[in-house]
Amino acid sequence: MMNKRVTVIGLGNSGLNAALLLKDVGALVRVTEAALNAIVLKNAAILDTKGIPYELGGHTREFISKSELIVVSPGVEDSSPAVRWANELNIPIIGEMELGYKLCKGKIIAITGTNGKSTVTTLIGEILKGGNKDTVVCGNIGNSLCGEIGRINKDTWVVLEVSSFQLERIVDFKPAISIILNITDDHMDRYDKFDRYFDEKLKVFKNQDKKEILILNRDAKELAGLEKKASSKVLYYSRLSKTNGSFLKGAAIVCAVGQKEEDVCTLKDIRLKGLHNIENVLVSVLAGALAGVKPVSMKDTIKNFTGLRHRFETISVIDGVEYIDDSKGTTVDSTLRALESCDRPVILIAGGKDKNSDYSTIRDAVKSRVKCLVLIGEARTRIRELLGEVVETREAATMQEAVELSRGLARPDDLVLLSPMCSSFDMFKDYKERGDVFKKAVLGLGMK
Questions:
Q1: pLDDT single digits (tens) 347-396
Q2: How many CA atoms does the CB half-sphere of 60 hold within 13 Å?
Q3: What does the alpha-carbon distance between residue 112 and residue 120 come to, in Å, rounded to a whole number?
Q4: Parallel, antiparallel, or unpaired for β 252-255 and 262-266?
Q5: Do residues 348 and 370 touch, judged by C-beta distance below 8 A?
Q6: How far are the Cα atoms of 216, 255, 389, 434 from residue 299, in angstroms, in the given order?
Q7: Domain map of the chain by residue range?
Q8: What angle do CA 241, 247, 250 make, to 5 degrees?
Q9: DSSP SS3 for 380
């Protein structure tokens, strides 16, 4: 990269870290950003301290015209003028994650899928750390790979959450271990059809060969037959049947890596709620075993792992009603999994920014498990059109109103579940803020 003219498109977390890394390795880097907001201005001030030139509030063709390489942040789409100009000028384009990979000395475990990525990424990271492995957890989970390169050496395990957006622009990216959890309807506002989204996810093992490993969820029907497309060694995990990787045997989590089957823990040791979290533990212990962590160490980690905030997190029980924050449930499938984990009647708070998802796929679960649907956000009209026939439906203008309405509808032993099926950007900064507002409203109920 020394003295190579590189332009980074985007000045969020990924773009900033890509620019700083390029500067550190001697590239002649510059940054172009279409937005002009507080985060961009804060990051631009950091570029100033490093002497990195930039343009804000719009892209210009002249700014990128002499570049030898373009590095694109995950949120930047092909329709961006800067991307179009780069293609017209025949300038090579890679993503931020690909740049990080090219400069990464560690062993990468890449986790992708529609649902469960963050939980699995975090749990694998904790298992490896508990087994005294040098570990860096990064990627789509919040801190970019480029920003962590300085901490990574040849003995480091890099546990990397990978999104379809990041996989769009890989070239040589080749993890030591690739994991696909599931692939269901999501981001239909970015992709014109599901098949394109599906194919982007499969790129996680595109460059692997027989020296690398691909881990697949045996229970995910949409992943059936993928082993035929892989050149890597394929291992499976399953809650429903015995496999060559990890599986549920009675109440025991069993790992079959190596010469014998080993019990890692039991279902009683798992503090996470829901059937989907049994699957998350199964894949995490398989990855841990492949990295050389002993079963006794993995058991200790699992017993102490309470999960992520805003992921099926109980906030409070008020007057016999349990309030659960699943704000990170931004897809229809994730809400389906949340409902499958509920053993009592549910008041479901859903809605937000529509990603053009097919809400009708959840009709049966809503009909059988939800006693009332409380809708918020931009998507509420469309959701009501598709699900309003099967369940009593109300609408609320704010999260506070939705929580208060839910309290009036709920009876002792009911659940009030926030699981939106949508992104949060119509009403909130992100899913975390949405969950925090829900929590504040719920805790406020207990004070009335």
A1: 999 999 988 888 999 999 999 999 999 999 999 999 999 999 999 999 99
A2: 8
A3: 10
A4: antiparallel
A5: yes
A6: 22, 12, 46, 33
A7: 5-91, 100-304, 313-445
A8: 80
A9: helix
Q: How far is CA 14 from CA 31, 73, 140, 226, 448, in A?
A: 12, 6, 9, 30, 43
Residue 187's pLDDT is 52
Distance between CA atoms of 30 and 49, rounded to whole angstroms? 13
One-letter amino acid for residue 378 of the chain: E
Question: 100-304 and 313-445: same fold?
Answer: no
Query: Taking residues 274-290, what's their average pLDDT?
Result: 94
Neighbours of 239 (CB within 10 A): 17
Query: What's the fold here for domain 100-304?
Result: UDP-N-acetylmuramoyl-L-alanine:D-glutamate ligase (3.40.1190)
pLDDT given at position 186: 54
Answer whether residue 1 shows pLDDT above 80. Answer: no
Residue 261 burial (10 A CB sphere; 0-12, 13-18, 19+): middle
Q: How many CB atoms lie within 10 A of CB 412?
A: 9
CB 416 within 8 A of CB 371: no
Which regions of 319-425 does DSSP assign to beta strands (E)? 321-325, 346-350, 370-375, 393-395, 415-418
- pLDDT per residue over 74-95, tens digit each? 888 888 999 999 999 999 999 9
The residues, any chain, with a CB within 8 Å of residue 53's CB and separated by 6 or more, are 30, 31, 47
The angle that helices 275-290 and 332-340 make with each other, rounded to 10 degrees, is 110
β-strand pairing of 54-55 with 107-112: unpaired
Write out pLDDT tens, residues 110-130.
Answer: 999 988 899 999 999 999 999
pLDDT grade for 158, boundaries at 50, 70 and 90:
very high
Neighbours of 144 (CB within 10 A): 27
Say what the pLDDT of residue 192 is.
Answer: 64
Q: What is the CATH number of domain 5-91?
A: 3.40.50.720
CATH architecture of 313-445: Alpha-Beta Complex (3.90)
Q: State the Cα–Cα distance between residues 278 and 3, nearest whole angstrom.
A: 50
CB of 110 within 8 A of CB of 177?
yes
Q: HSE (CB half, 13 Å, CA atoms) of 335? A: 32
10 Å CB burial of residue 419 (0-12, 13-18, 19+) is buried
CB 240, CB 218: distance < 8 Å: yes
| Nearest CA-CA partner of 59 in 83, 75, 89, 78 | 83
Q: What is the CA radius of gyration of the chain?
A: 23
